[in-house]
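Bench notes, bay 3.
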Amino acid sequence: MLEGEQEQIIQIIIEAIFEKKGQDVKLLELKDLTTIADYFVICSAESDMQVKAIADNIDDGLSKAGIKVWKKEGFKALSWVLIDLSDIVVHVFRNESRQFYNLERLWGDAPIKEIIDPLK
């Protein structure tokens, strides 16, 4: 995937997160560190219902844009939903799960960009 395409996909994901009031949105750039993915998009939610709403909204936004999701996990437990697009992986966490797994610390060598809701 081209970087321009990745940027457009990330923008769709971020807009979908903020539409459902996702919090503490961060973009980790992993492309120089691993082959797992080029980017992680990470956000937090306050409840299971909000995790589901954010994840569903991301899935819907990507689908409307004709972007195929490779894999989805966590829709039963709803403490951590993962949406895998191969080169971009989205992590929607309940606050407690995000603190526990602390992906930002785990990938501490990655450049991290905090994403601010443009409507706030």
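Next record in the batch:
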Amino acid sequence: MESETGTAPEVVHSEQEWRERLSPEEYRVLRQAGTERPFTGEYVDTKTVGVYACRACGAELFRSETKFESHCGWPSFFTPLAGEAVIERTDDSLGMTRTEVLCARCHGHLGHVFAGEGYDTPTDLRYCINSVSLTLVPEEG
């Protein structure tokens, strides 16, 4: 079954199965495109080295090396792990046009990406991602 992104997710569950697999807050954000309150997420200030994976399906999405201090209230990254790790689509909700970021594997809502804000990063992009959409897998060392 193809979604509104134009591609079918690799990981598919019924809404009931998602509700059973995810906490109510995870379900609200990942499956209903909700947003956690700013400065409340567990990864806002995290400096741990590792990989950030999708909390819904485990797909690797971002590396800690691309995380930066944006002071926006959510974890920010300047690039995903690989171009095919995420899907971007237009989001016209809330009376504005933004670019929504989804996990390419399960189509879970991660957050939004913003361009041209002037951050001193290699891409001038800010992937503003909900902590509740992610699981940090620390690097073993």
